[in-house]
Amino acid sequence: MSVASPTRRPGRVLRRIAVVAATVVATGAFASASSDAHSRHDSLDLTSIAISSSAQPQVRDDAFDTERLAGRTVDTETSSAANAECDGCAATATTLGIVYVDRGRAAKLDNVATAWNSCTDCRTASVSVQVVVVRRAQSVTANNRALALNAACEGCHAAAAAYQLVMLEPRGKRLSGSDIQALRDWVDAQVAQLSAQAAPRSMLRSAPKTAETPLDQLQQRVGSALGGAKTLDRSQDVQTG
Question: Which of 58, 153, 164, 238 would disulfide-bridge 6, Cβ 3.0–4.6 Å?
Answer without folding.
Answer: 58
